[in-house]
Design goal:
The protein is mainly alpha-helical. Helices cover 43% and strands 8% of the residues. The chain is built from 4 helices and 3 strands; from the N terminus they run H-E-E-H-H-H-E. It has a 3-stranded antiparallel beta sheet with strand order 1-2-3, with no helix packed on it.
């Protein structure tokens, strides 16, 4: 079991932080949009493991690009994106540096797990809880 803890309330935030955009992307950056994108318009690269649009997998060859994306997440990017996401949702709250540090730590932990999977030539399965 690895982090970050993602749920349906924040996948759009994590997509924004990972990719720096709210636009849908292709390739490994699409990991969080798997829950956001309508089935009929799929551009995301994840494999729908159970067919219910809840649990996804990535092949091992997709992980290096995902690792590169997670490695680009820093406090400045997390803060900027979190504020953008809050404003887009009508919230004027400004997150603290500690809150943004925590999100960056989750991406670092996620990156460490991806790095370990890459070293073993493994893929990634994402089971939402």
């Amino acid at each position: 079991m690895i982090g970050p803890e993602i749920n349906h309330r924040n996948v759009d935030l994590f997509h924004l932080i990972l990719n720096g955009t709210t636009d849908f992307v292709t390739g490994s950056g699409s990991i969080f949009q798997a829950w956001l994108e309508p089935q009929s318009d799929r551009t995301q690269a994840a494999i729908d493991v159970t067919g219910d649009n809840e649990h996804f997998a990535f092949h091992s060859d997709q992980l290096p690009a995902l690792l590169e994306l997670t490695s680009s997440v820093d406090v400045e990017r997390a803060t900027t994106c979190f504020i953008q996401w809050l404003r887009a949702n009508g919230d004027d709250y400004t997150p603290s540096e500690d809150e943004c540090d925590e999100m960056v730590s989750e991406f670092v932990q996620f990156g460490d797990s991806i790095r370990a999977a890459i070293s073993k030539s493994q893929g990634l399965i994402w089971i939402s809880s």
